Description:
Layout: E1 13-19, E2 24-29, E3 35-40, E4 45-49, E5 54-58, E6 64-69, E7 75-80, E8 84-89, E9 95-100, E10 106-113, H1 132-135, H2 162-167, E11 175-181, E12 185-190, E13 194-200, E14 206-207, E15 216-229, E16 235-246, E17 258-267, H3 270-273, H4 275-327, H5 333-341, H6 348-356, H7 360-403, H8 406-409, H9 416-452, H10 465-474, H11 482-485, H12 496-506, H13 521-546, E18 548-557, E19 571-577, E20 593-600, E21 612-617, E22 632-639, E23 644-652, E24 656-663, E25 674-680, E26 687-690, E27 708-709, E28 716-720, E29 724-731, E30 736-741, E31 745-750
Parallel strand pairs: 22-27
Antiparallel strand pairs: 1-31, 2-3, 3-4, 4-5, 6-7, 7-8, 8-9, 10-11, 11-12, 12-13, 14-15, 15-16, 16-17, 17-18, 19-20, 20-21, 21-22, 22-26, 23-24, 24-25, 25-28, 29-30, 30-31
Helix pairs in contact: 4-5, 4-7, 4-13, 7-9, 9-10, 9-13
Amino acid sequence: METDEPPRVLPFQLQFDKPVASQIKFAEWNPEKDLLAMVTEDSKILLHRFNWQRLWTIFPGRCITSLCWCPDGKAIAVGLEDGTISLHDVENGKLLRSLKSHIVAVVSLNWEEDGQVIKDDSVNNSTYEDRTSRFFPPAPRVPRMPGLVPGDTGFMDDSEDSFRELSNSSYQRFNILCSGDKDGSICFSIFGIFPIGKINIHNLSIPIPFATEPTTYRLSNASISKVALSKDLCHLIVMCSGELNHDEVESAERQLDMHGFHCLLLDTSIFWKRKNELHQVAQQASNIEDLIEVIRTSLSVMSKQWKDAMHTFHEKFDSLSRLIIDHGLDSSPQEEFLSLLGGARTSPPVHQFLVNSLGELGVKRVSKVVCGAGKELQHVVLDHLQPAAEIICFRMGELRGLSRWRTRFQGIGLDETLINNATEKSGILLAQVERFMRVLSSVVQQVCIKLLMQEPSDQLLPYNSELLVIFLKFLYDQDPVKPFLELSEVDIETEMEAVQRVRELVHFGGFSDCEYLRRTLAEEFKQMESSFKEAFLMPFTTISRKMVCKDVLPLFALPSSPASVSFMIPMSVTYYKGASTAISSYQTPEHGFIDYISFQIHGDSSSNIINCIGISRGFMHSLSNRIEESASLEAILLSVPDGYHCVDLALYKDGQIVLLLNETADASESSGESCMMIVQANELPFVSIPRSSCVNTWNLDQLKDSIMHLQLENEKVRNISHSVVAPLAVSASRGVACVFAARKRALVYILDEDEDDVSDTE
């Protein structure tokens, strides 16, 4: 039967319906490319193109607890259960950097770049030129440890240039990687590689901005669910569960029963105010840390190579001492051996050993091993260690100059005294490298060259014993190379004349440590590294102290249960560009961003608000009206349609909210149907909520009488013939959403298509 009504057109086009090998627990679209990163339940990371072509799969070997992209899409940050944050190259998944910022699971990652856009690049003061490339060739790479294949070191690969690009942040827009763990600690890293601050929400003093009397609160038993930096880097919104109590409880009457879900607003304006200074310090310090890794690995490689060579030597000659003791005189093995070389009679066992092992051919075989190790050490020094030490000296000189600009850099903790000490230690290390090279060259020349110039012979020649004496002088009786490569409490023997000259040079200035000649190369490196840690810890501590809590927004109550329940609450924090009447006191030229916070109200909430989604906006700006008697933010409660419950949600571009809803059924998780709905947030009838001076009220309770009921018929909805599970991955740049069905399938939908042009493809 024909009708005049046109067929109903579905609002979203299904682009792909693909199977997945394992259920997905995290998924994020690349902000710049058509790439989707997914984490499976068995903690594998998969990277797919939009056409579902898989590019690579990696397995970190530990449980993955969070995921986020670098703002330029060239690297992906992965939070692990043991507190490690690993950065991987988007091209091939190779490990670029591994940071141990936390001691427990990293549950939330947010990588945000400075939102300022200046049309005239000539006045862009945030661009910092690194002058090192003017005077030095590219920085050396980490040398390979003998016996390891590429990638085993866990640092970077020789064939990769992405690590250099990650470290070379001269022309990058300033960005901050923020990470939160399940114990309440939040860490900040500039460019994702240089730690610059750390706070714990348990230690925060939480003020009540509109209280008539100064009142502060603290969170206990708190667990972070989400962290989100604002576009201007001036504020951090923290979604967490915990119990809110008075900072100082004077009486039982003041105890609060505020266990629930809260939203904290932290002041991180130091990142905006001092971004140019922080950019320059992070540029130098992060590259110095890379070069320190080069030196550390170089010393390890050199120590292993020399140890292996000396093992070959002693394996050959240790039996000589036992033979001399058993068949020789009462003198030491060294003295007895030299007398034997002078023509004394030997016992048959010793004579046999001399003929078989200390003939010219036998000595040459051992000397080739030692000589080869010596030359390998020289290559490591010249190609890796020495260039790294030289560039470190230059970069420390740059930091030394910055530290003297006290009006700009003292405020971020760049201490001139500590930087001067670290600069001196880097110069002394370079002097130690030169000294080590002289000793190594002397050993290689005296031990090996003379022996290699002789013709091989199976007999111990009468007057060739001088070569053996030289050989044993450096290796059998003493090892001049080994002390330089190991941490030793024994001072290196140094001529008093050289020590006296160094003490005289101290009076001319430039350095104050005149005892470095008595230290080994490894010990000098240890002291230099310690001085760097002390110098770079000061900015870290200074920035950490400048980040404070400005406001708290109690959202809804939770039952007295483990705080981990908050991890299962769908939530999203996004900053949209739009007109805002309340402007932050730290407003950037790229002003007009307003925060949207959306979350599902937990089903076990003690309030009467059931099966609702809460959305607030303007929390960041609500403090700008604090001079008035009352200030307000805007919020609304959306009631999920009957028969459905929210699985996940995501804030989309242009103020849109994407909801993923499942049918409520008593059957198994994989049964039933679901739907995806888009709600235009900026068109919702938000209600102004007055900010009370008393915190012991749940703000959303004021919206009970103004709940907006969502209707499947009136909203932009697409039915899905599968039961779905979290996560919901939405790409604002591509205009697509990836939905994961409970039966291990991935469904990709086009969100931006015009409804009139979309046909039903299911």
